[in-house]
## 1
Amino acid sequence: MRQLNLINAFFNMTVKNTVPETPLIRPPSEWRSILIRITRGCKWNRCRFCGIYPHLGEPNFTSRSVADVKHDIDLLKQLRPNAETAFFGDADPLMVGIDAFIEITEYVRKVFALRRLTCYARVSTLWKLKKESIKVLARAGLDRVHIGLESGDAKTLRFHRKGQSPEMVRETTDWLKEAGIEISFYVLLGLGGRDHWQRHIHQTAQLINETEPDFVRLRRLWLYQNENPYSAPGSPLLKEIRIGSFTPQIPEGCVLELRMLIEELNNLSTFVTCDHKNNYVQVSGFLHENRDDMLATVDSFLALPKSMRDAHYLAVGSQI
Ligand code: SF4
């Protein structure tokens, strides 16, 4: 009997991390935050333009236990006792389940004196939670969600298998605003390809005008490559390009998309920023204060001689 108890004790014993697990990616604006990994990978994992988690070696989705995440929070307290902001990853940490998410949120709020707590969140996940649960998240201490809007165009979203519609975005942003949770949208220039870029940008501007998020963060579509059979998997969109169902945007087209987007946005209180170095032209500012300056920055780039613009596209093209 004693031997059996010892065996049980051995199997029940949990080997604890000595260093906290870190989300594979984080928003640039969270560079000073403590990074807390609640889930691994992306449960949806279907967006054609993406493939980031399989490419980075995390092809499957798993949830971590509340106990393990709390243990990581304790470790982070030893490493960064005065941290003021925190971020939850990976792609959609609410998939851990609302009860577990709230328990972790309340725990990190108890351990750290945070002024901001944010996470990545898919629109469809928030939409399934509905208004009341989103209010519960806010009460537990979630301040901001980083949402991959990508496009406001229904056809573009459907083609890329994003799993969300403009209607879902509208409804979800209403609930988030009502709950007092800030909204940070990510928009991908180039997502409509060369054939549908105007529709992609026009519909995106329209949806942003309707929803007035706190932030719009712009990036250029970037595809993970799989150069040979032994390299990490590439973006699913590569196959569509090969068979001709998607034609990538040209570099100057991305700059024209940026210009059209800024021009079509209203004088909102939204902060727009190109906070990723893969953008060909970087602009940042509040739409209601800095829209003309942002347009002037794009226009002065477009006024450069073609040889200079092309050299710039080549130089930026290799960065991510
Ligand atoms: S874009 Fe986001 S939701 Fe879509 S597969 Fe990539 S990580 Fe998952």
## 2
Amino acid sequence: MKKHITLSFLLFFFSFAFIGVQAQDTSYVRSIITQLASPELHGRGYVKKGDKKAAKLLLQEIEKIGLQAFEPGYTQEFSFPVNSFPRNVFVSVDDKKLTPGVDYLLRGDAPSTRGSYQIAWINQKVVEHEDALVNMINNVDKDYFIAIDTTGIRNETILELIQFIRAENPTKASGIIWIHHGKLVYRPYKEQSKFPTIQMKPEALSPDAQEIKIKARARFHKKYTTQNLVAYHPGQVDTFIVMVAHYDHIGRMGKECYFPGANDNASGSAALLDFARHIGQKENQAYYSYAFIWFGAEETGLLGSKFYTEHPFFPLNQIKYLFNYDMVGTGDEGLSIVNALSHPEVFARMEAMNEQHQFFESIRGGKGSANSDHYYFTTHEVPSFFFFTRGKFKAYHDITDKAENLPLSGYHAFFGFIAQFLSEVEQLRY
Ligand SMILES: [Zn+2]
């Protein structure tokens, strides 16, 4: 009986403490997101040291919070090759300048390109006549770009051939224009292609357009050095609960076009600071130790988290749980937890807790996936969970993922969910 009372009391006490925090406003995370997503940070990529400026900003906060460092300066450096567009990128069609990010995006692996080109089409009309397609492929030369629009093409063999042309450009044409009916998305590449590919909205290139002009200077870094930031808050034991988020984004494409990355993943980076502040508060004295890792180069292929798992600052088997936050700036449509189904008992507890406290109307547990920074930890048997929120805000790897657009509609619920779960883990040690 006594035990029961003690437990209830503690649960009550902890619910109280954490619910108190849950009622905080979002001004802190919003201010961090706004700074990380600002044009001065250049999309936190590999133009104008965007990644380093973002790291500096985070370090200032880490020091303010008073987190401890495993290594001097909290920093773990690593290098990788990456292609970038530091100078202006210019594209016009029949002398009408197109707007980067709105009308078109270069694919991240494009080399420097400069010139005026005629346009040869591969579209439904052309592929109706096999001869026309073959003639076109044989006759284009370096004065051409091939524009590809697969709308209405159903023939699988033709589609495969088109994919091959798009990927390899076996013709003499100087580049490929890929007509894209969906959203234009960008990502940095670790390599540079031999020819440029331009993703273009159908409205930006009419089938009777005559000429495309391009001026793009690419800079390929053979060895770009970026960094992870690793900090911790000591508990009574050296078993760690680790929270991670990538702070890099996809940078900029030329002077005019930068990718703010407010949801992806200024939101998770800010949330990590918010949790660090929360756990650092005296009244939340922790039994477990808590590590916080801001990863670099996630968008370039999970490079920061891969490097970290190969060079960890403390043994990976001391990690009790790892929580990865990547895109937590929405929530009006619920919370998703990738890899939850690999840990059914833990997920059942999360579901029960959510049911009791009604943080989210819907939480969705998913299978494991190599889609964010938890992945390499799962390959080292670390119980890992990747949280992202779902919502009507759909900006992704584009120029509209801005802080002022980000609703943070489920942030209270998200913070409450994690904090409550951790308070139960602290109490019950499961
Ligand atoms: Zn991301």
